[in-house]
Amino acid sequence: SAPRTVLLTGAAGGVGTRMRELLPGYGWTLRLLDMHPVPDAPDAHVLDLGTADTDALRTAVRGVAAIVHLAGISLESTFEKILAANIRGTYALYEAARAEGVRRVVFASSNHAVGFTPVPADGAGLIPPDTPHRPDTFYGLSKSFGEDLAQLYRDRHGIETVSVRIGSCQPAPTSVRGLSTWLSFGDCARLFHAALTAPDVGHTVVYGSSANTRLWWDLAPARALGYAPRDDSEPYAAELIAQHGELDTGNPEQAHLGGEFCTHPPRWPH
Ligand code: 15L
């Protein structure tokens, strides 16, 4: 087996594409998986986790030290599509990991697992990872499920997972909400590397953001894994606030961590 080889699922996606560039810089050799062909990666495992046969999936995970699981629908969709891609897909991946003896998963959970949590008032405490699940969509529900699945595989089978409730992993924040939720690509790679290397994580849930001045949730659990974020969205604040106005938690679209996912969720186009 290859101690520094990581299987990256969703390797052709928005976050996966950037992690393909950045994670090798931390010494990881990547094996790639996606339902779509991965550009410039003829060796990628091209399969749909929701429908793949067991043998193909076991072959994809065989011998890796860990899995970074990004694959899935990343916006709201029909329950049936979420069920196949995110719920069955994540189950199938863990089952293959169990069968092949893979010991560590980094799961791309989402703030939308707790999206209906109210934005903390000024001076109130930051939201901790053990706040109750309050999914804001079927998409968020699939992330709540993934976190519970990770706990099950930890307790029954000893597979360790860091569930990272990613905020908004984009080149730059694009909304006033994003000033609180932004995760730069560089910090995302730093956090995934910490989650891959921290000892004895059991099942640990952390938030995934840069060190934003306007954070809503507690990054201490991520820092405890060794994550040292370098970015802060604050330099984008003046322009975004001039354009859109200050955050207004009296507006239902801005009242909860999940933002517009709570009122009119963006939908998966495919
Ligand atoms: C997510 O979970 C989505 O995958 C992403 O597209 C963003 O919308 C992000 O959350 C967010 O909350 O900004």
UniProtKB/TrEMBL annotation:
Transmembrane segments: none annotated. One of its GO terms (molecular function) is oxidoreductase activity. InterPro entries: Epimerase_deHydtase, NAD(P)-bd_dom_sf. Residues 6-166 form the NAD-dependent epimerase/dehydratase domain. Keywords: NAD, Oxidoreductase. The keyword NAD applies. SUPFAM superfamilies: NAD(P)-binding Rossmann-fold domains. The keyword Thylakoid does not apply. Residues 248-270 are annotated as: Disordered. Belongs to the NAD(P)-dependent epimerase/dehydratase family. This is Uronate dehydrogenase. It comes from Streptomyces qinglanensis.
